Amino acid sequence: MTNILLEAKNIKRDFKDKDRVFHAVKDISFDLHEGEVISFIGPNGAGKTTLLKSISNYLVPTSGNIEVMGINLLKQPRKARRKMGVVFGGDRGFYNNATARENLRFFGRLLDVKEKELKQNVEEALETVELANVGDKKAGTFSKGMLQRLHIARGLVNNPKILMLDEPTAGLDVEAVYEIRALVKKLKQQGHGIILTSHDMADIENLTDRIFLIGGGEIHFSGDIGALKKFAKVDQDESLEKTYLQVADQLKRRD
């Protein structure tokens, strides 16, 4: 068994609206191992975003505990956050008139990367995403696919073991999608633990080791794709998209 990189136990997140308490996430537990890709799938309002924001320290859970490589995220958030790279992607997020290297150096400093390590970290990140040869070109000249790889490089610049990839292939052409999927597989082989979110079931089917079905703020199933198909009572040769549609109704929030 590979090392556990992240362990979440009994995570709850409530939101108060006047006299009503909305339970966005209800007692969720899971772990993430080295060299593993996991995904949370479910309908809008299922609790995916709230859960991921809680894990990445953008929200504080109402209760529960999160350990990031042995560091308590709630007690030492800054230290734990350094072990993670969060990749949102999209066309924005970089200074268009700055080069790829300049952008990564800037964001590396924001992530408290030590100056003596910064240059090497930037070069390694660019090499990993295969942008080293265009590192001195301005980010504003990059294609969507190149920008997405630069976003992943930004997520790697603090040399984290854990990566959270949010919709990494959204809006990309077929060739760029293939490149991003190949990159995710390479990162997995390098031992990174990856939490992948995507509305593209082909991404999930191609990349994910374990799937968590989430609905109404709760986990309804966790396991590999084969086990999910058994859970959904569909044939093993059925697509993940049709498998998900088979169970989608039971994931809808009832409260």
Spell out the CATH superfamily. P-loop containing nucleotide triphosphate hydrolases
Question: What number of structural domains do the residues give?
Answer: 1
Largest sheet: 6 strands, mixed
DSSP strand content: 25-35%
> Per CATH, which architecture?
3-Layer(aba) Sandwich
Low-confidence stretches: none
Number of strands: 10
Helix content: 25-40%
CATH level-3 fold name: Rossmann fold
CATH level-1 class: Alpha Beta
Protein name: ABC transporter ATP-binding protein
Domain ABC transporter: 6-241
InterPro entries: AAA+_ATPase, ABC_transporter-like_ATP-bd, ABC_transporter_ATP-binding, P-loop_NTPase
Keywords: ATP-binding, Nucleotide-binding, Transport
Protein described:
The chain is an alpha/beta fold and 255 residues long. It has a single domain (34-50, 77-251), classed as Rossmann fold (3-Layer(aba) Sandwich). The protein is built from nine helices and ten strands. It has helices spanning 48-55, 77-81, 100-110, 115-128, 144-156, 174-189, 201-207, 225-232, 240-247, and strands spanning 4-17, 20-33, 37-41, 63-68, 71-72, 84-87, 162-166, 193-197, 210-215, 218-223. The protein has a six-stranded mixed beta sheet, with helices on one face. A four-stranded antiparallel beta sheet has the order 2-1-4-5. A hairpin with a 2-residue loop joins strand 9 and strand 10. Helix 8 packs across helix 9 (240-247). The longest helix has 16 residues, at 174-189. The relative contact order is 0.17. The model has no long low-confidence stretch (mean pLDDT 93).
